[in-house]
Amino acid sequence: MKKISTLLSVAIFALACKAQEQPRVSQTKEASSYYFNHKPKLVVGIIVDQMRYDYLTRFYTKYGEGGFKRMMNEGFNCKNNHFNYVPTKTAPGHASVFSGTTPKYHGIIANDWYDKDLKKSVYCAGDESVNPVGTTSNAGKMSPHRMTTTTFADENRLFTQMRGKSIGISVKDRGAILPAGHSANAAYWFYGKDQGDFITSTYYMNTLPQWVQDFNDSDVADSYLKPWETYYDIETYTESGTDLNDFEEGFKGKETATFPYDLGSLKDKNGGFDIIKGTAYGNSIVADFAIAALTGEQLGQDEHTDVLTVSFSSTDYVGHNFGVNSKEIEDTYIRLDIDLERFFKALDEKVGKGNYTVFLTADHAAVDVPAYLQSVKIPAGYVKAKEERVQMETFLQKKYGANFIENISNNQVFLNRTKIAEMNLELEDVQGALVNEIISYENIYKAFSATTMSTTSFPIGLEALLQKGYNQKRSGDVIFEYNAAYISYGRKGSTHGSGFDYDTHVPLLFFGKGIKHGQTFEKTEITDIAPTVSALLDISFPNGAIIGQPLEFVLE
């Protein structure tokens, strides 16, 4: 009887345990379903290269309802968004947006920079250890290996056990590679010249996927070798300057920088298919490729969030060539708005409304052509970098009996530290003497030594921006900044790179799943984007994101 009672107790206990286990399994499934249903299936990060904030407002009446306006009307507009470091260049900008940190930490201090160990200039994405895929050109020997931190795309890959995809797309290699991160499935960029194809490197794969081969074989690039005319009547482009002026470079083979531009007849003197990159059509082919990638890579088709990064770089080429006040830049943004609308429609159809989240920002803005500013009596001008270098070398030779300058680039002076040590001089003293010398130059506004950048904290002002861009291992011995609207550049076209508002103030728009509708004039910074997306996805922040903060007012 005791034995039967014991067996009965064991059976009852087992049944009780089984009854308790069942709800726990159900709860786990419900929690999992709730979790995945509340995350976007796809995050799309869009960078518009060289986009000033005021392009949203200047050209507003020319935009349709489905592009920029859709993001503003359905999403959240951060109107006072800024870069928080110098230099405001393409590679640092792309790295900073997606890593949530600045060159001080992610190491991408410029597009190209002088390597103090190798004693030569290196390219931000150049990598001799990989081979090109889709071309035989060295334009394919690229990877993200010089970026020292993760992006939110990397963190999403880690979180999903590499099940969530990460794809980067741009006409520029650095615009595709740096945002997608180290663990990306692929990065594709456009190679022009005599080819006109999207390519990649063996860092990602050994052969192009069939969908990319099909895209290249479809001769889409050829279809854009056509006349570039204004989308609307040029007389209605009242938001920009005159079409014929003295402030634009234009294309080789055409006497004036005026519409229309026959790309078919101009291509041979302007790099073949590369001419497409310098027109509004360069953005169109990126949109074409991004739409093809949605299907080709099956993005947003399962429970694991994917990341697609898209950089529209032709805006930068057009801005450099024609300036920020040109008819060409206005038409480029009108056409980009149309490309955005068809891209968003493709997202609606292929991923589904309410299943994806998009943000749009820029990697930097740009200054008005200084010659134009001078013509309307605004302080501006040009500096003669070669003459400045001669002055510096003459100063050092006179003071120390030797010239220690190895390189000057990106507003940084690199000194020969070995030579300084051999002469029993203190590096800090030489740096300080050079700072005191160059701050007397007419157009240099600020100058600091590496020692000062490493030992003094600057919480606000231009000094703080310079410090956030200063990388102790990679930056130079002396860094400097020119006066506002003074640039080392040709007299035609625009450029960028400073810490002044015309270079730092860029758009920041969010819309889609998990995003509130609204706007703010509260200051936000470019390094807030990656933490915000990471918070939306409930994943770890990128490992160098110690500066930015999630923008809670953007998230539902």
TrEMBL record:
Signal peptide: none annotated. The active site is at residue 90. Coiled coil: none annotated. The keyword Metal-binding applies. GO terms for molecular function: alkaline phosphatase activity; metal ion binding. The keyword Plastid does not apply. Transmembrane segments: none annotated. Pfam families: Phosphodiest (PF01663). Keywords: Metal-binding, Phosphoprotein, Signal. Substrate binds at residues 111, 172-174. This is Alkaline phosphatase family protein.
